[in-house]
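Progress against Task 2.4 (sequence-to-structure conversion) is shown through the following example record, which the project officer requested during the mid-term review.
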Amino acid sequence: MHSKENNFAYIDGANLHNGIAGLGWKLDYKRFRVWLSDKYGIKSAYIFIGLIPKYKDLYKYLQECGFTLIFKEVVYNSDGKPKGNCDADLVLQSVCDAYKNKFDKAIIVSSDGDYAGLVKFLKERGKLKTILSPHTKNLCSILLKRTNAPIAYLNDQKTILRDKKEKAPDADKTA
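Structure tokens generated for the chain above:
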């Protein structure tokens, strides 16, 4: 259906992971990559993510699923918690790709209002397909909603995108 489209996905890795985890389920990244291709004609899917060596197996898995990883150097706060803010890298990559006309339409995967300016930029140029929010409607940033861009919520696709190997809540009656 979308085979002739050349659309790109720009994914805020931390926002995607934390949003889905906050909803209480685990994303099947392999299914997610296929779904992006089938539903939105995504040819290239970039995940912007902090680089932490102990997660090398995760990075390898994501690449095997068909994602291109863009790493951000991680810094640690005083509590030792890692911070790899990828927002600027995602914006820069998508704007550069838009100016070079590398894609037909872009999908932004995040609920972060920091991307509202990017969404407006892409919309004005006819380059935005949709925003995919890993949060529920009430947790998606009002700044993104105010752009009047189309927003789809990944939780609505939970039955398709949930990791089937994940134990269903209360499956063993211990919850």
